[in-house]
Write a structure and sequence with these properties.
Number of domains: 2
Structural class: alpha+beta
Strand content: 5-15%
Distance between the termini: 43 Å
Shape: elongated
CATH architecture of the largest domain: Roll
Order of helices and strands: HHEEHEEHHHEEHEEHHHHHH
Largest sheet: 4 strands, antiparallel
CATH topology of the largest domain: Endonuclease I-creI
Radius of gyration: 22 Å
CATH superfamily of the largest domain: Homing endonucleases
Number of strands: 8
Oligomer: single chain
Number of helices: 13
CATH class of the largest domain: Alpha Beta
Length: 306
Amino acid sequence: MSFSNEVKSEIFSFIEKNPDRKFACLYGIMLYSKKMASDLIVIQSENLEVMKFTENLFNELFEGKIQLHLDSSRKIRNSVLYSLKIDSEKDLSLIFDFYETGKRENILLSRNLKCSFLAGAFLICGSVNSPEKDYHLEFKVADEAKANIISDLLLGIKTKVKISERKNNYIVYLKESESIEDVLTYIGATNSTLEIMNIKILKTFSNKANRIRNCDTANINKTVNASYNQIENIKIIDNAIGLDNIPEELKEVAMIRMNNFEMTLQEIGESLKNPISRSGVNHRFKKISAIAERIKSGDLKNNEQK
């Protein structure tokens, strides 16, 4: 399975946990489908799992009342294109009534719904390269206005996003690993985010090992694993409550770690505004870990830390 399809499989699990996520995700899928009009909805993908997931969303949200027609056709190089069509006037009316104007606007205003909406868009028109290769995530969109919606959502989570034109399509894309990590985390693919981070860390240490002779591999692996867990906790906190809402002493070590995967605890301690010992830095990371655990367990919500 490609990395892009792994991301989409992870999104399925994220969306299935919450009815509101399903509602927003399906709207994202429909809006970025081949056609969404009052007389016809056509959703297409080469990914059969995406199409099955879309069918399930329709069946769950509309309680099986929508007639769905899933067809397949062969494309060049023997790939298969799957199409889901809805052409019944009654079904279309039911769908558009369900997504009335106020509800559609709410999707693009609510943080919880925006991430699910963007996840739906990614399922139907998005892709991301394997982190083993170059860093690249994109949405391929036929309409400039819809491309701008995605761009605005990505700018809203402070990513470095660009838009270009390619063969009558608009490509909304990101090429920086940190921005790609933020997007994948935002749309529910946290394990894929961690995979990118882990590979990036390993690449960093691999390059460093090539420059330094007699490098202690065991110590590198230990530092990599520690950095991996620390960055995972920092990402969880940042996405849930923001780093500005934890004590300044914890934020300081968190920011240094995010920008310096290879640093030892001692080096981090020496880099602080008021240097502290290795054990002092370790103590701060334990506090960060405790906050992340509270978030994962649901005991800590927005703006409750400070």
